[in-house]
Here is the input.
Amino acid sequence: MRKNKKIPQRKCIVTQEMKPKQAMIRIVRNKEGDVFIDPTGKQNGRGAYMTIDETIVRKAEADRVLERTFQVKIDPTIYEQLLDLAKDQEHEK
Here is the structure.
């Protein structure tokens, strides 16, 4: 009898929905206070997951979700990179 393989779930910091880890992007704050996108999901630091969707990224920017989550000032280029990823994801569908 085959066992079903467990799919890791993570909670989106914007929508609070549980989704498969592969459907999300990890954002990390390291000990130095730098915030960056972690496409590998293995970088050291405090991580948070966000759904890769343009409307969700725009909502996160408007509501300053990353600032509240990581308690640091977020460089606007992080949101630009997230929007680029969301647009790339949309083109792949």
